[in-house]
């Protein structure tokens, strides 16, 4: 699976951004796709994940109710819609993939920087 993230940028607190992850390759139909983020000096954390085949989605932690992960089958893209952004959402955001038969996220795209100003 090949992954290419886009859509990062600078936004004021309370604003919105949409990140996109273009997915390609032979096996993405049997993959889970996720967005992770890593804040300066912090550890990488899971933000949201979705199963490509069913569209079943989960968001985690502090982004629940503000972020939504979705898929666009026609364009092979996973989107992360981020609303009500906070300065603590500032991070590099990565999309990642794994086989549905595995637990380890072993396929990573390049990150995209999201900066939320107060």
Q: What would you say this structure looks like, in words?
A:
This protein has strands at residues 2-6, 9-12, 17-24, 31-38, 44-51, 57-59, 67-72, 77-82, 91-99, 107-108, 112-117. With 118 residues, it is mostly beta strands. Strands 2, 4, 5, 6, 9, 10 and 11 form a 7-stranded mixed sheet that branches. A 4-stranded antiparallel sheet has the order 1-3-8-7, with no helix packed on it. It starts with a strand and ends with a strand. The model has no long low-confidence stretch (mean pLDDT 94).
What is this entry, summarized?
This protein is an all-beta fold and 118 residues long. 0% of the residues lie in helices and 55% in strands.
| Span between termini | 37 Å
Oligomer: single chain
- DSSP strand count: 11
Low-confidence stretches: none
Question: For the report, how would you describe the main beta sheet?
Answer: 7 strands, mixed
Overall morphology: globular
Mean pLDDT: 94
Order of helices and strands: EEEEEEEEEEE
Radius of gyration: 13 Å
Secondary structure: helix percent = under 10%
Q: What fraction of residues sit in β-strands?
A: over 45%
Helices and strands, with pairings:
Elements: E1 2-6, E2 9-12, E3 17-24, E4 31-38, E5 44-51, E6 57-59, E7 67-72, E8 77-82, E9 91-99, E10 107-108, E11 112-117
Parallel strand pairs: 2-11
Antiparallel strand pairs: 1-3, 3-8, 4-5, 4-9, 5-6, 7-8, 9-10, 9-11
């Amino acid at each position: 699976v090949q992954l290419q993230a886009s859509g990062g940028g600078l936004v004021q607190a309370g604003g919105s951004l949409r990140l996109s992850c273009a997915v390609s390759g032979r096996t993405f139909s049997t993959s889970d796709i996720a967005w992770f983020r890593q804040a300066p000096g912090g550890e990488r954390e899971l933000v949201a994940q979705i199963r490509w085949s069913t569209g079943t989605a989960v968001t985690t932690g502090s982004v629940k109710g503000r972020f939504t992960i979705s898929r666009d089958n026609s364009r092979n893209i996973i989107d992360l819609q981020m609303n009500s952004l906070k300065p603590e959402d500032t991070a590099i955001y990565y999309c990642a993939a794994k086989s549905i038969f595995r637990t380890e996220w072993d396929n990573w795209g390049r990150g995209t920087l999201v900066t939320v100003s107060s």
